[in-house]
């Protein structure tokens, strides 16, 4: 299986980190338009087609463009999300090739988050 290294994260696990963990780096890979309609609090929007370029940037460029510190390769709580988990899975494939081995996929995506949060 191609994504052997990918660890998924559940709604409950992510909910426990959002707004509480200083280590959480949540990347939403949907389009800017989608994110504008609703997103998980604290996420950083890096659309799927720009993920590879973004994570290959040097740390200063990354911070200037996205407003957050570029994640370390072994970031303990690097989570990718999208609408339903498909695009975030693709994004993880891209960043794993760059060495981000701990990246996790929130497979429920914003679709599940918004249902559970009653939005």
Automatic annotation (TrEMBL):
InterPro entries: Rhodanese-like_dom, Rhodanese-like_dom_sf. SUPFAM superfamilies: Rhodanese/Cell cycle control phosphatase. Residues 20-118 form the Rhodanese domain. It comes from the Eukaryota. PANTHER family: THIOSULFATE SULFURTRANSFERASE RDL2, MITOCHONDRIAL-RELATED, THIOSULFATE SULFURTRANSFERASE_RHODANESE-LIKE DOMAIN-CONTAINING PROTEIN 1 ISOFORM X2. This is Rhodanese domain-containing protein. It comes from Oreochromis aureus (Israeli tilapia). The gene is tstd1.
